[in-house]
Amino acid sequence: MLKQEAQWLGKMIYSLDKDTVFPLLNLGSSSKKFREKQQPWIYQFLFKPAQEKGNLVIHADLKQDVGVDLIGNLNDTKFLKTISELNIQSVICSNLLEHIVNKEEICQNISSIIPVNGYLFVTVPYQFPLHLDPIDTLFRPNINQLCELFPELEMIEGEIISGGKLYQCTSIPGFLYVIIMIMRLLLPFYQPLRWLNSFRYSLWLFRDISVTCIVFKKTQNIHDFYQKSGI
To answer: What's the predicted TM-score (pTM) here?
Structure first.
């Protein structure tokens, strides 16, 4: 997650009535280490304010790790049932949709777990290099394309957020990141698959990166939406 992206999401979340946002489900949360050490701005802008105010955030991911509260797959009906019992009010889905092949199905499942008057905070890279986790479909939607995946939700706010140059967007000082990247490129035979990923990133070091960010609100249940739409 970009620092500017975390700031934007935090601004959106904490401008809303807390009773319509929390408990908040963070899908594809990764680990506590990732959120607090590798990309500390995630905790700073998104989850620290909630923690300080006693608002519940539930972190969900596919893999078990420290800081993951809920483990499961959004394709799994048992996992969806578990979520439905948690009184979730809103969902964050950040930098997840570019890593799945069945976007339409997943997005419909995400919509289904949000109650009426709840929110979805969703972000997807717009200008960003290939990043495998474990795959990257290169889904890089604009605002309209991302809205098409959630036809039953109402867009409240949408913006393409600039993150500056790629080398500026890590927790490592920019000049040091460039030096590390150059040194890594000089060792193509050490872990060649990781080297290839570093090579792809090196092509973007001095390019602008950005992310598409949208806040959706669920104003009606999915059954009513499809009934009115005649689908």
So the answer is: 0.89
